[in-house]
Amino acid sequence: MYLGGSFTQINGTTPSGRFARWGCPIAPDGDADGDGVITLLDYAAFYECLIASGPAGRSAFGCVFSDLDADQDTDLRDFASFAAMF
Question: Angle CA(38)–CA(43)–CA(52) in degrees, nearest 5?
Fold first, then answer.
């Protein structure tokens, strides 16, 4: 459920006030907490995933957000992409 500001209805009108609507806003890749922006909290979570990936090269459970190149690990290539977004 997304709680946010006003939105446009099917008939084109925009009701005033705040409403709840179903759905999930799309969070950018690298956004660990899903708030829609890349912050230091996301960096801290990314760092933990980078360390947890280790020499075996597999992403730890819960680190899907940090695998930015979709190669099943969190490595320096992912960090380069994350740094560019930060």
Answer: 135
- Grouping H, G, I as helix, E, B as strand and the rest as coil, residue 3 is strand
**How do residues 3-43 score in pLDDT, each as one tens digit?**
455 555 666 666 555 555 555 555 568 999 888 889 999 99
Question: How many other C-beta atoms are found inside a 10 Å radius of the C-beta of residue 19?
Answer: 13
What is 39-58 written as a DSSP string?
-HHHHHHHHHHHHHHTTTT-
The burial class, CB within 10 Å (0-12 / 13-18 / 19+), for 23 is exposed
CATH code, residues 2-85? 1.10.1330
What does pTM read for this prediction? 0.64
Rounded Cα gap, residues 41 and 76, in angstroms: 19
Cβ-contact 18, 5 below 8 angstroms: yes
